[in-house]
Amino acid sequence: MTSITEVARHAGVSPSIVSRLLNGDPTLRIRTDTRERVLAAVEELDYAPNHAARALRRSRVGTIGLAVPDMHNPVYATILEGARPAATEHGFVLMLTDLDDLASDTTTFRRIVRGGAIDGLLLQRNSTAAGRVVDRVAPSRLPLVILNERVRSPASGVAVDDRAAARLATRHLIEHGHTDIAHLRLGGRNSRSRDRQAGWEDALREAGIPVSRDLLGHGGVVPETGYRGLTELLARDRRPTAVFVGSVLAAVGALAAARDAGLTVPDDLSVIGFHDTWLAEHVDPPLSVVRLPLEEMGREAIRVLVDLIEGKPPQQVMVSTPEPTLIIRSSTGKVP
Amino acid sequence: MTSITEVARHAGVSPSIVSRLLNGDPTLRIRTDTRERVLAAVEELDYAPNHAARALRRSRVGTIGLAVPDMHNPVYATILEGARPAATEHGFVLMLTDLDDLASDTTTFRRIVRGGAIDGLLLQRNSTAAGRVVDRVAPSRLPLVILNERVRSPASGVAVDDRAAARLATRHLIEHGHTDIAHLRLGGRNSRSRDRQAGWEDALREAGIPVSRDLLGHGGVVPETGYRGLTELLARDRRPTAVFVGSVLAAVGALAAARDAGLTVPDDLSVIGFHDTWLAEHVDPPLSVVRLPLEEMGREAIRVLVDLIEGKPPQQVMVSTPEPTLIIRSSTGKVP
DNA sequence: AGCAGCCAGGAAATCGATTCTTCTGCCTAC
DNA sequence: GTAGGCAGAAGAATCGATTTCCTGGCTGCT
């Protein structure tokens, strides 16, 4: 590990010069030949400032904690793909922290948050665990950005336009002549679930179709709950001819439920999901979905968090470009 | 940020006592009442040692870098699910580093590796990028563990028994009466690809079936390459009745290729994939696969890396419990 | 000549935890 | 009565980078 002292000795200057040069101190007056000697020494010794020492001095570690509930969920993977390069651009590294650990384990929480292992936290507010983390983080004044969720003003949050996207998906079904359009909602106390349901209602109302509780079911966020949700819905008196599912994974489960109920998709039942991931393309039938700017959301979340770390005020951002788009595959069709 | 000095003042002792007590210094002699005063102060101030200061002093940061090519790949997500809790157990946090950045960007590499931002690196050796990273890391003596790949002795690696698993998968096809069994290999210069092909050959040879180049194709690791691979294979003179695909994602692509070629799976063609992820369950038809202990591999990799960080010698580990298992779904059946 | 002012760079304090060395009473044993 | 020993704890150096405050020497002006 070459230290700044070695570089300084190598170049025949004092450490402060090396530091100020490398950090671009505007008040630094330095001769060209000295500058070049220092830079040459840096190159030759392959010097990089020690992470820990710099963090200690600056009281900023250069890492951002990322707490998502489940890496298997392709939605989070996509957000991550957007967030990581953005973090790098801003000079930060992402640190993976387990949401549940943060919520339940005092030792982990202390180590990470109180011990200053991260400069800020990016949190997917999903489970009740996330709520607990938010409550615990608040008093420590650690910069915090809630991901994929609209939040109230004192907090920072970055979301996508779930409502518009849900409306788009539902309208697609309406345009195919459907009027009995069910919705399998995410569930839970979060804006995503509410907004997607609201978008569904928006589209129905705009088309003059009455919104009925009979066509509202629970879809959850994994295939199993989607399967159960559609199965239960199909057992009711009033059978839908189309269903808008609030999650891709649940939509995949719904596809299986339809098959097991003896229905052909899309001839007997149209299914549209939420969020495009390459999974949607490879199920049978390929799933129509509405695509939202998830990577962009990841990128924005990093930007907002870095702003917060730099002392700027909290922001609530809705990422709306590119706009939600329909990806029409084979799971949606005309009304039977 | 409460510091150790504040805790010391609060308890009426010197900082060294606090440090030695909290770190369990065995040479520390301390009165019970003093100990309790210190612990009470720690609790009251909710003190945790500053990450950066401790890292600086100990020259160990407590983080492990993880470089995988693609989070969308459920295989990596699964390995990660195993690695993260193991890291926490050992007192480390996982840091996400981009493989390509590490390979190509000097600044990032310096910052992370030379700057001592990680104590060790867990690397999925996949692309040529990974090879470059290995070469660059070597001179810096950063502890390095290659994931999911057999390696030669001076390096450390953790792998699963690809060959046995491939043999198992192929034998499953043989037991269903198939003799024209193709293999879509991963490709690339890595042991995974070679071992899976070797396992396929093992099973054929054991059954007295000649191994033919005509039945060997390229599958890659994503659906698109799997699609192309099978399409090309089906265009040859000799048509297989079954195919063992070296990756789940490629197998999913192969399913689509079979459908587009007018073949019904499994009636006209049996398909078996490698690695079980919940994706396999939800494609049509549900894909038979062979399941390997991926989470366990992630956990083991952390153990080996931590050993390395603590100065123990390199190890090459093959994770073989639980043993590879067949997960039989509906994509494999009797020979037509 | 004398002095202000600038140029180029140096010295030292600091961040917080760890760890090695040193110190102070008090008790015991000879 | 005093040296020695030990329990119990304080002090100080250190890790490496940053940053504030200085300094020596030269220039230019009066």
Q: Mind explaining what this structure looks like?
A:
2 copies of one chain form a homodimer. Chain A is α/β, with parallel strands linked by helices and 336 residues long. Chain A is 46% helix and 15% strand. Chain A is built from 14 helices and 12 strands. In chain A, the strands form 2 sheets. Chain A has a 6-stranded parallel β-sheet, with helices on both faces. Chain A has a 6-stranded mixed β-sheet with strand order 7-6-8-9-10-12, sandwiched between helices. In chain A, strand 8, helix 12 and strand 9 form a beta-alpha-beta unit. The longest helix of chain A has 16 residues. Chain A is elongated and about 85 Å long. The N and C termini of chain A lie far apart (71 Å). The interface between A and B is large, with 56 and 55 residues. Strand 2 of chain A pairs antiparallel with strand 2 of chain B.
> Given the helix and strand composition of chain A, which structural class is it?
alpha/beta
User: What kind of assembly state do the chains in view correspond to?
Assistant: homodimer
Q: Which pair of chains forms the biggest interface, and how many residues does each contribute?
A: A-B, 56 and 55 residues
Strands across the major sheet of chain A, in which order?
2-1-3-4-5-11
Mean pLDDT of chain A: 94
Strand percentage of chain A, roughly?
Answer: 15-25%
Number of helices of chain A: 14
Shape of chain A: elongated
Q: Report Rg of chain A.
A: 25 Å
The helicity of chain A comes to 40-55%
